[in-house]
# Entry
Amino acid sequence: MNEALSAETISIAGHNGDEIEAYLAQPTGSEQFGSVVVIHHMPGYDPETKEIVRKFAAHGYAALMPNLYHREAPGASSDDAAAVARARGGVPDDRLVGDVAGAVSSLKALPGANGKVGVIGYCSGGRQSFLSACSLELDAAVDCYGACVVYPPPEGLGLKFTPVAGLAKDLSCPVLGLFGADDKLPSPEETAELSKILDDLGKPHEFHTYDNTGHSFFSVDRPAYRVAAANDGWEKIWDFFGRYLAG
Amino acid sequence: MCTYLTETIKIAGSGKGSAGWFAVSDASVYFDHPVHAMAEHTLNIDFRNPGKGPDARVAVELTYESARELVRAIEATLGSVPPGLVA
# Structure
């Protein structure tokens, strides 16, 4: 791995063929590579998640992050766009799946793509990663602390999210789950319940829950960052994607 | 945890953003991870004017204690408004 990469902002065809902004990073000098769709967290298509996209490229994967809030706020800064999306209740599930499908198509069309595509999502993107893996033909999925996969959101929050665990029978690929023991959304009870559902369906998965760790522990720019959990989590991701996407 | 909790209300007034003053018509109030403040969760308020675009926004992220103190100060201030100044 020489860690050489290129990165750029591109347009892709998302849900319903809508043209949306996306951030692409890909390894240079690799003859063949696997690909990853990165689903940003609820705070948006921000510089820190773009750094994650580049990290995948440095590790030999093409990575593409669609701006899920592009329609609400084209050209706006990531925090302003997230504020608009939040005020409107978030991203509809069907639109999310359409945008991820568009990202998958774009990645498969890259010269050098080996045809294998995984998905990873953080926070609300964790749930959306699981939803994508139940809705699209993918090769691997990572859910980083996604809530409302099994349990509905607590009453009174005004959320439009609905549980998606009922779609698990259609799960198309293995799932890696990375969670914090101190998180409340999702709680360890919820992730244990999801693991049981997948066990009962015979769906391959591996879940890891880190002690002394809450939500958003991969966020290097936030107090929630937990270096031990994040470092181990990245090792788990490289191992997991190495098995299912590389080569 | 990511609380996702959001209250949205209609408001009337003005705010000063990066491009100067503008009328604000909406506010979002939520307790969640901040973008900038050094706390795991903060009380966040976006004073917005959606008609003027996403960047027509004045945003604050306050620690829980600061937000409580702000509420107290607002209540105290409004409570001491002399009769006749408001309808």
